[in-house]
Design brief:
alpha/beta, Rossmann fold, 2 domains, ten-stranded mixed beta sheet, two-stranded parallel sheet, 17 helices, 18 strands, 34% helix, 18% strand, signal
Length: 513
């Protein structure tokens, strides 16, 4: 399919092009390639960033993308997905492990590309593009990536005289949803796909954000920082040592059951507010909503698995920002996403109040349209896998945005749909203990899944246990863990009461529950 899009012949895997990034720029600057008008600029080497050619493309009327061409192209393409409702091209570099993925690919010799998905906004929490623009909604939902790919493949053929030998898609959050959209709806487009913390049941996930906010907005339901610490500490006391070491990370998540945690032990006397040493009934109702599956009786099949309590709810990028809005419900990230979704997809009214007027099923047809446009829930990946595609899922177990249980549920459904033999041969799920949404948290959040995927596709070397690290501001590892293929988890086998040993991956083994 790629050759059909771009023309020419593909490079042999692993071959580096003799065309420099400056020469590639000269061949593409000011040209219209496929449907895209292109402007190319040579970017010199800087600290931590190699020299490359930055190609900015526009597909009329408003689909923008950025293609980065390395100094020596390895013949492969890395497509990096966007976050939230997109609205801008993800930059090449960023401050955290998640935002570094395109730079990692560029340094390895990949041509790497990202898109704004067809609309422009200063915030990726803004769904206003979908209010009156059906084409923009279709682009965001599923069509932006294949549309951009057509022009990108042709641009590579024009610059280098060949199309990519391998093409991979990787993304987190909405980028993970995009990854799964392409595996399900466009199975011929990529040779390998990495879906990190995928927001794949978009309509139900936004609806679960809505029910969380409804529970939190009730009188007396807001948590103080001390109450969040109380909750998280209670979970750690019950579950942290289950993996063999008390290190602030619950790694044996399968054993950390609701019965073991027993959240009702934190109930205030009579269920009434009684200070920071207990939880009121209104606060326990928030926890109940958080951990329950969200379902809507009028829309069969629309559901989102609840979150598991994980012991890291008190982290700075966890409950405080995603659920509580640092004490203001309307500043919570979950509130902002569900509010914009409600206004622009469901109510079709920018002035609607999602909490006072909000009913996720107020317009069943609009809800079904939201699902049709954006959901990636089809578990049958056989069209993608049958042509040799490889599929990796990854999810942080402390993710406060998208429950790791969603990835577990999809992976199990997918295995049932394609069969265990094909799933074992072509799919993997990795859970990263103590990692928040896409990155951050107490756990090891950096892992090079692209290198593992490329070895799998190009050499047939199926990934098993990988390495996960937490890096400091200079890129040096401060914590390492084995990244275990599900259903395994990292169990500590090192010396007791040795904090330094607990930071080394060599002191863990991947074990089955």
């Amino acid at each position: 399919m790629l050759s059909a899009c771009g023309g020419g012949t593909s490079k042999a895997p692993g071959h580096f092009s003799d065309v420099s990034s400056q020469q590639a720029c000269n061949l593409l600057n000011g040209k219209t390639v496929g449907e895209a008008a292109m402007q190319a600029t040579s970017v010199p080497m800087q600290a931590g960033t190699p020299a490359y050619c930055k190609v900015q493309g526009l597909i009329s009327p408003s689909l923008r993308f950025e293609l980065r061409l390395p100094e020596r192209w390895n013949g492969k393409l890395h497509f990096w997905g966007g976050g939230g409702y997109n609205g801008f091209v993800q930059p090449l570099t960023g401050a955290n492990a998640n935002a570094q993925r395109p730079l990692v690919a560029l340094k390895a010799g990949y041509a790497t590309v990202s898109t704004d998905s067809g609309h422009q906004s200063a915030s990726n929490r803004d769904a206003s593009f979908a209010l009156n623009d059906a084409h923009a909604a279709e682009l965001f939902g599923s069509l932006a990536v294949p549309t951009v790919m057509s022009s990108v493949v042709k641009a590579l053929a024009q610059a280098y005289g060949s199309t990519p030998s391998r093409s991979y898609f990787e993304g987190c959050s909405n980028g993970g949803r995009e990854a799964m959209i392409n595996a399900q709806r466009f199975p011929e487009l990529f040779d390998g796909i990495i879906a990190r913390a995928p927001a794949y049941p978009w309509a139900a996930l936004m609806g679960h954000f809505h029910t969380n906010m409804l529970a939190l907005s009730k009188p007396g339901a807001m948590f103080s920082p001390a109450k969040v610490s109380l909750l998280a500490g209670h979970v750690r006391a019950a579950c942290d040592a289950l993996d063999g070491v008390e290190d602030g990370v619950v790694s044996h998540t399968q054993a950390c059951t609701a019965q073991l945690v027993n959240i009702q032990a934190l109930r205030c006397k009579g269920g009434m507010e009684d200070g920071d040493s207990c939880l009121s009934d209104a606060q326990l109702a928030v926890v109940q909503e958080w951990t329950s599956d969200a379902q809507w009786p009028g829309t069969p099949g629309l559901r989102a698995a609840g979150w598991s309590l994980n012991g890291n709810e008190d982290g700075p990028s966890n409950w405080a920002t995603w659920l509580l809005g640092n004490g203001q419900v309307t500043q919570a990230i979950q509130y902002l996403y569900q509010d914009s979704t409600f206004k622009n997809y469901l109510a079709k009214n920018p002035g609607a109040d999602s909490l006072r007027q909000g009913n996720w099923e107020r317009d069943p047809d609009a809800l079904k349209m939201l699902s049709r446009l954006n959901d990636a829930t089809n578990p049958d990946l056989r069209p993608f896998l049958n042509r040799g595609g490889k599929f990796i899922m990854w999810h942080g177990t402390s993710d406060p945005a998208i429950s790791k249980n969603l990835s577990l549920e999809y992976f199990r459904n997918m295995r049932n749909a394609v069969g265990t033999a094909q799933s074992d041969a072509s799919t993997r799920l990795y859970l990263a203990p103590g990692v928040d949404h896409c990155n951050g948290g107490a756990g090891a959040d950096s892992s090079d899944l692209l290198a593992a995927l490329d070895r799998w596709v190009a050499q047939g070397a199926a990934p098993q246990t990988l390495l996960a690290e937490k890096l400091d501001g200079n890129g040096a590892p401060v914590l390492a863990r084995p990244l275990c293929a599900y259903p395994q988890y990292p169990r500590y086998v090192g010396p007791a009461a040795d904090a330094a040993a607990a930071r080394l991956a060599s002191n863990y083994v991947c074990d089955r529950p």
